[in-house]
Amino acid sequence: MSKQLDNIKFAYWVPNVSGGLVISKLEQRTSWDIDYNRKLAQVAEDSGFDYALSQIRFTAGYGAEYQHESVAFSHALLAATNKLKVIAAVLPGPWNPALLAKQISTIDHLSNGRVAVNVVSGWFRGEFHAIGEHWLEHDERYRRSEEFIRAIKGIWTEDNFSFRGDFYRFNNYTLQPKPLQKPHPEIFQGGSSRAARDMAARVSDWYFTNGNTVEGIKAQIDDIRAKAAAEGRTVKIGVNAFVIARDTEEEAKAVLQEIIDKADPEAVNAFGSEVKNAGKASPEGEGNWAKSSFEDLVQYNDGFKTNLIGTPQQIAERIVALKAVGVDLVLTGYLHFIEEVEYFGKNVLPLVRELEAKQTAAAA
Ligand SMILES: Cc1cc2nc3c(=O)[nH]c(=O)nc-3n(C[C@H](O)[C@H](O)[C@H](O)COP(=O)(O)O)c2cc1C
Fold this sequence. Notes:
It holds the Pfam family Bac_luciferase. The protein is an alpha/beta fold. It has one domain (about 5-364): TIM Barrel (Alpha-Beta Barrel), CATH 3.20.20. The protein has helices at about 35-45, 70-80, 95-110, 125-130, 140-155, 195-205, 215-230, 250-260, 265-275, 295, 310-325, 335-364, and strands at about 10-15, 50-55, 85-90, 115-120, 160-165, 170-175, 185-190, 205-210, 235-240, 245, 310, 330-335. The structure holds flavin mononucleotide (FMN).
């Protein structure tokens, strides 16, 4: 079977940060606590989800007042599940690659090879200031993240690892035990700027991007895949989407409208002004949030733009259209996580698999 015909994968955002995935005062039956999250992880793996992605925040950026730490929280979810892979978000700066490589190697053993990392590069200057971390310029942050990834890969795969970078140094370091997963736990990264794409092409296994239209995502994929091919590499692609699946399209659209109508304008605008430190500040101005409207920002990773809002059939068709332009994974967020992950598993996922089977048959 060719790669294009592999089943598309599904992840969900771990709500380890309070306030859910939308900056709205609409009632959300989602909790950031561990009991809720353990139950959610179990429901997700039983519903056919492949991955869960945790978030890292050191301070509140947009009313997300409480934030559990991502690596410890990811481990708790792995301990509560059997098949689900959990991706822990980590931020170079606060994390040093020696500690991260060791933490993740141990968690890989504890979870029987189910942990992965999402290396994020930082967008919130106030957060770095609050914890006494230097704030680097946009492309410098990516230069550091690339060294960080090269370092953790080297530690995970080599004995007597030595490295001379501008940010990190290693001298004949041998990590024992190495991770169970070979060659190493999967490395995801989040961000959409030119620097993010170039880094993905050179060192990451997966490129995660904010929500976007099919055309917007295709342009990114074509760019990354061409650059990766020039490096003799392949990079898998994950795209964010806020899913509102309801029995009728009207119901789904009404929920979206209510989320936006009840948005917290002060928090959305505060977030909008902070993210100018991210994509808009990249030299080419193409990164995440560079073109986001107020409504887009209500879901803080542009998840409405992907338009997985409608009936199960409409959503399944749009997912297959994303797959057709090269998307390997859809990262999903919801208003009421547990019940909506269950609904998605029951009503949307089987339709996606049916459409994929038809495509496979047609291509055979
Ligand atoms: C799927 C995804 C997950 C992310 N998770 C986090 C996170 O947990 N913590 C964080 O500080 N930034 C997170 N980010 C933000 C990115 O690391 C990056 O700072 C931001 O997208 C701006 O990068 P750009 O200028 O390359 O677009 C995430 C981004 C994406 C796309």
